[in-house]
Amino acid sequence: MTQSDTTYYSIDRQAYQHFCDCVARDTHDVAELLSNDFRDASQNDAAPVAQSPIMRELLARAERYAASEATVLLTGESGTGKEVLARYIHDSGPRANEPYVRVNCAALPESLIESELFGHDRGAFTGADSERAGRFEIAAHGTLLLDEISEIPPAIQAKLLRVLEEGEYQRVGSNVNRQVTARIIATSNRHLEDDI
Q: Are residues 36 and 64 in the same domain?
């Protein structure tokens, strides 16, 4: 290789590296912009799209449910959009600017579900070295989605029934009643009437 070949190769290599750096930076910027657009659309503006008469009727019902304070149970097979509909109900109602808290009941270990839902006081059990707010408390005046509620163990179902009927609960290890201010939406992939 002559000196002119070496110089040309060095400049060509630097130009190539500069080009690769620009492409990588631009690709990252585009990916970040798309990610932000999708996140913004999924959190705020993206209402479910309904073209069939049945789906339009379902969305009309969801809007009526959104205007009420009633607890809502959505049932249907996995993947049918129960969570999307629950979010739509929250976003369409008077609590839209309040927290939307989702709990996947099927994913919680039985030993932790009570603490996860209702919270616990310091010293309530081994390892509870500080108090912790539960999901009901975190949801505050917003909406609490209990996803796959049919997976909750019977002992916790009884406590949850008290919450729904009386509007109050106690943290694990506490005797103090706390008021439920969150609206509750529950989903299940099973027909709960058949399980009774």
A: no
